[in-house]
Amino acid sequence: MTARFQTTIQALVFSGLFVVLEAATIACRNEEGEAVDWFIFYKLPKRQDKDSRETGLEYLYLDSTMRNWRRSGQLINATESALGRTLQQLYEACASQSNDTAYLLYNDGGPKSVGYSRNFGHTKGALLWNRVQGFWVIHSVPRFPPIAEEGYDYPATGRRNGQSGICVTFKYNQYETIDSQLLVCNPNIYSCSIPATFHQELVHMPQLCTRFRPSKIPVRYLTTLQSAQGQTFLHFAKSDSFLDDIFAAWIAQQLKTHFLTETWQRKRQELPSNCSLPYHVYNIKAIKVSRQSYFSSYQDHAKWGISQKGTKDHWTCIGDLNRSPHQAFRSGGFICTQNRNIYQAFQKLVLYYEDCN
């Protein structure tokens, strides 16, 4: 065997090993199955007119490699969707019963639930991680995702209204901070596995898995998180002891910017736009998908907010609480970033918003 041939073989083996390791790394994944630092989905509502061909499963997609929304060619209930590709890692980890991988699914309306428990936060998400890295999905979809033993699917109840969510890839050193944020949010965990190897660093998540809630919980907590590729995020978590609207009373004032917010505006259950504090919060009333396509906030169960156009800041926040009198008493949170591409993508969706009376 010549030296050149041996070098070529070694290079091929190394390259193949790198591909295998990349494929095995836990991360948010795009529709091709490739790892991405973060992605955002915006599931569009089902059209009520008889002539519409839309199913309520179409979605817009944006990730760390893109500058603008792309209307996905996949449906959100497909295993080839970004959510399907990402959560498949969780279902495979559950099947393998690995002691070096942990997962946690939470939703105030779990997959098998009939109603919603107010004993827990109005918060929804999924986490999978090992001692290298993992992902955190924060979303607005009730009864989603299925328990770890059942595999990926999307609930029929999630079709009618718009829904939103974000997936962020984090190194393991961020999970101790995430652990503390979840304590404040008080999630309803319906499926989890956290092997003992993680218990020394992650104190609260194993307790929450057993439905144990410490008596002393911070009223609210704000922390900084760094994605695997260095994108900065702020995470706002409020407990049910913080008796106020998270956007008007905290996020807008903390970030010192006027906000446009899109949360589910159910009749007689919405809070009006608020201009009583130094930084205002305005309710978005209609979402523009294209020049010909738009929908009302009454059809939208998504939860997000952006800095008002014209301000110097470019904040985007995505989370799981509505601007509602009832949810001022619920725990939950928002993850926020000043990523300009994310901000501009959401800003383009705003058709009009409600001013203060």
Automatic annotation (TrEMBL):
It is an enzyme of class 3 (hydrolase). The keyword Hydrolase applies. It is found in: Lysosome. Keywords: Endonuclease, Glycoprotein, Hydrolase, Lysosome, Nuclease, Signal. Belongs to the DNase II family. It catalyses: Endonucleolytic cleavage to nucleoside 3'-phosphates and 3'-phosphooligonucleotide end-products. It comes from Octodon degus. Residues 1-23 form the signal peptide. PANTHER family: DEOXYRIBONUCLEASE II (PTHR10858), DEOXYRIBONUCLEASE-2-BETA (PTHR10858:SF2). Hydrolyzes DNA under acidic conditions. Does not require divalent cations for activity. Participates in the degradation of nuclear DNA during lens cell differentiation. One of its GO terms (molecular function) is deoxyribonuclease II activity. InterPro entries: DNase_II. This is Deoxyribonuclease-2-beta. The lineage of its organism: Eukaryota, Metazoa, Chordata, Craniata, Vertebrata. The gene is Dnase2b. Its EC number is 3.1.22.1. Its main location: other. One of its GO terms (cellular component) is lysosome. One of its GO terms (biological process) is apoptotic DNA fragmentation.
